[in-house]
């Protein structure tokens, strides 16, 4: 941050050579940007005061699996500051984000203080990068892990990242019940459940969107928390009571998103956009080093006896009995979600370790 503030000081010194009125106007704009950034930092501090959920709740295991990593945590922090600072600057100046982007002084100061610059440096190599960078030399961040997801359709938010402020939408659970409620059990004689497991494996190779926090959004104490979108359960539901916990995705900010002063929320993808075996090897050099057998760097670690996946952290265990069960460690931590997914992981790792 010191370097960024240093830029502002240099910028101010350069203003000494310009017209007095222009200098006054520019200094006012910089003050507005600084005030907005500090406002964003205060809002970030408020957002971080969240109560974590216990990872022993069996109903939350699938949600807990994509909880953000340290790198995503920092990306989200930058994004929260950016969103709140943008919102504050819009309210203070009475301008839209698009209008603010057209102001060279505001846009430059805001970008230097808030938005990250690209640090990707492409060097000639015989092999691909683990994080997917430099696959496209003209756009080295395309498909890279830990970047903002690209949109197929333009976002439709209210100001900032708030939901659209029209009438209430119907419960997602009610829609699910109405559309997918089966009156009888159908038996598919052509495809087995392994088709679903394989599809989930491929999905886990190209997308991983972390949640914004580990909190209970069904708790009334969190009713006004901006990352909470709890799902109401209609009366008479056969499986659930009155609420389904739903935490929105972590926010992202990226140098690949055109224009820094953007009040529309973006989401993180922690994986590369390529089908490259990331669910086995990880999406970074650090992850790969943890998974590789250091006695033979071309092979992945396995657990004996049985040539199984190695042991990971115990967050996936529903009971405290760790003597007869363990959490598997793979390139993607969602390996423990369902047994068939873990089985396919194991088969592919065994194939990797076959010399």
UniProtKB/TrEMBL annotation:
Keyword Signal: yes
Transmembrane regions listed in the UniProt entry: none
Keyword Magnesium: no
Alphabetized PROSITE patterns for the sequence: PEROXIDASE_3 (PS50292)
Main localization (coarse): secreted
Database matches in SUPFAM superfamilies: Heme-dependent peroxidases (SSF48113)
Protein EC: 1.11.1.7
Pfam entry (one): An_peroxidase
Any one Gene Ontology BP term: response to oxidative stress
EC primary class: oxidoreductase
Signal peptide interval: 1-20
InterPro entries per the UniProt record, alphabetical: Haem_peroxidase_animal (IPR019791), Haem_peroxidase_sf (IPR010255), Haem_peroxidase_sf_animal (IPR037120)
Location within or outside the cell: Secreted
Keywords: Glycoprotein, Oxidoreductase, Peroxidase, Secreted, Signal
PANTHER family the record matches: CHORION PEROXIDASE, OXIDASE/PEROXIDASE
Name of the protein in question: PXDN
Provenance organism: Mytilus edulis (Blue mussel)
